[in-house]
Amino acid sequence: MAAHSHHHHHARTQDGIDWSTRLAFFRQADELDAEARRVVARRLVRPLPDRPTVLDVGCGTGGMAVALVEALSARGGGTLVLVDGTPEMLDAATSAARSAATYEGDTATAVVKVRPVLADLATERPVEFAGPAQLVWASNVVHHLPDQRAAVAGLVEAVSPGGWLALAEGGLEGKFLPWDLGVGEPGLSARLSGARAHWFTLMRENIEGSVRLPGGWNTVLADLGMLDVTAFSYLIDHPAPPKQAVRDWAVNQLKWHREVAGDLLHPSDRDAVRRLLDPQDPAYLGLRDDVFLLMANTVHLGRKP
After folding, report:
1. Which residue range or ranges hold the Methyltransferase type domain (predicted)?
2. For residue 104, what pLDDT band results from cuts at 50, 70 and 90?
3. What is this structure's pTM?
4. Is 11 inside any structural domain?
5. What is the CATH number of the domain that holds 246?
6. Which residues pair with residue 227 across a beta bridge?
């Protein structure tokens, strides 16, 4: 996925992923997702009271934090609390958000306070990070925690009465490769997706204390007492021929697929991936005109009574 922000204290976490090594990749994704996220941030901030407190849980490198700062600035300010468990991620998000907050400081009186909190969601309660918030945003965070329903319950606890929880989970997996690359067998993209889905299932099973989710995210929100439960999806669409940022993202995305699920691929697919990632090969992804980025992210919303 383009926008994956995760968090934990330890460099190597329970899900086995060293998030600090993914910093450059997340920054790249933030840049490509920026326009779509601005629209989402404005939509989420619109119903909030004046000068609200917003909690961005698992803020990653701060792509959504910047969008939230801009949306809050435009309506008179507020407080943004950033939470992540990887210090490098949290630092990146904090400086990005703070520079957005002071961007028009000489003319505007709107001030958004940005407060970073280093914390591990698997062991700490979000309500302790900021007290009740009028909006809690958590994107692609919960599915890395052992008990996902308990994690959502913790997020609900951090929402003030009448406030909103916005849970960005699921959608349509990002596509970035054409059906036939002229290398290996056609349909590599679908087989990569299958391998990654298999890896994800194994990753969930191997998290210590892992508990299966009883159903879809909307039913979880409703079961936890949230009202007006609904969802919307937003598109990230960078068509071919791509700008170089999209090519670079595609190279890193394919490397990530290879890293997590490469051994689940047929040897001929592994060979095709090796060629696509070789800068000396004519098939190299970083120079192709037929790569793109197309994905849909879903945001599940609920309001606290």
Report:
1. 55-165
2. low
3. 0.89
4. no
5. 3.40.50.150
6. 303
